[in-house]
Amino acid sequence: MNMMFLQELFNNITQRDALLRRRQPETLTPDHRQLAKACQALLESDGEASSIALASRALAIYQRLSDAEKSSFFARLSADFAAEPGPIDAAYASYHEARDNDSLQRLFEACEPRRQELFRRLNLASDGTFELVKMREDLLRLLREQPELAAIDDDFDHLLGSWFNRGFLMLKRIDWNTPASILEKIIRYEAVHEIQDWNDLRRRLDARDRRCFAFFHPAIGDEPLIFVEVALHKGLPSRIQPILSGEVSGEMSGEKPGNKKGLNDPDDADTAAFFGISNCQTGLRGISFGNFLIKQVVQELSQELPQLKYFVTLSPVPGFAQWLQAQRDDEQLPQPLRQTLKALETPAWHQDKAHEEQLKAAIRPLAARYLVDEKNSHGLPLNPVARFHLGNGAELHRINWLGDTSVKGFQQGAGLMVNYLYVLDDIEHNHENYTAKATVACSNEVRDLARRARKLAKGETTK
Prior knowledge:
With about 475 residues, this protein is an alpha+beta fold. It contains 21 helices and nine strands. The chain has helices at about 1-20, 30-45, 50-65, 65-80, 85-100, 100-110, 115-120, 130-145, 150-165, 180-190, 200-205, 240-245, 250-255, 290-305, 320-330, 335-340, 355-370, 385-390, 405-415, 425-435, 445-455; strands at about 170-175, 210-215, 225-235, 250, 260, 270-280, 310-315, 395-400, 415-420. The strands form two sheets. Strands 1-2-3-6-7-9-8 form a seven-stranded mixed sheet. Strands 4-5 form a two-stranded antiparallel sheet. Helix 14 (about 290-305) links the parallel strand 6 and strand 7 (about 310-315). Helix 1 (about 1-20) packs across helix 3, helix 2 (about 30-45) packs antiparallel against helix 3 (about 50-65) and helix 8 runs antiparallel to helix 9 (about 150-165). The N and C termini lie far apart (about 70 Å).
């Protein structure tokens, strides 16, 4: 009863705040100077009610700024709402002399940029959290051309990381009974395998052999933060097209290729395959949800279907086709290997048996090398999907030839897909090794393919 009362009270305050914001008089040409004055007034406010009204006004002005004015506003944030050198110097001198916790705390407070307190106060407005997420989305877009704004992004990252920590996230299952407003967002935000229409969505939410889960945050209502799509079936999947079409191929279930059947009873499944993980809010980029989501979904599925033995992804390999193109142009590679890779230029090469077999023998080992050995400037795997799953404690388990025969699948990953296997007893160990040593946990099959790639690069036979 108390929770219901508090929720109703919160809703009433939120609705009243939104109404006040809509009633604010609008200027014909809002600019960054007007917004900076509104932000300064908000920082100087000492009453909660007035702060809510001022926060609402500031956000209303921001929403109406042009892109150029937003850029100017962020420049003002960087220059005028930074930490002030004078108080920092005084607080440091005090700490240098006293060396106690009180003076250290004052130094911390002095070093905090004023814009962090500004963001906290803007968050008082109704929908303030979501508006700040969208504000950061604007900032991220500007950062490409204005890297000097990176300090503001650090402030956003610090605050959003606290506001969106695991304790505030709510896991909800998405099914055909979920409100249409949320289902429409699932269609719009799907980033891995585009949802074609409502019939396609219904197939993906089929209670017989599909599951979908999403994280929500109480401050932004029915806007999903991230969601994962799951297929239930026997065996580890190797191809995405049967999953997207609502079928289970014999390659997955142990039957002869060509035999297909739908899995009507989830009790027959021994595998949960994560085939699509989509982050929904660009403004929350860098705030980690995926690892929490996968681990909690594993717990949910384990309770619902205790017979499940395997938790595995069927993941794309973005960037591999581009990397492979660079290998084809590398004159240091043996000529026979480069000649084999030239077959990729043949239209519909995967439908030519001779070309397909030659390319399979070369590309799968090269994919293992790309995923296991190729590193970025931080010493981590070059592939972003690999970094995500390996960082979560998964094992690079299998490289699937012609796993995605869509146009996008060939363009980004030369038709390959990858299984990352989550073995519950190994997750913590794999995660620690990856974090401490950038160790890529992989199966013997993948390790063998990587060795074959090294031989191919030397012109040695792999047979």
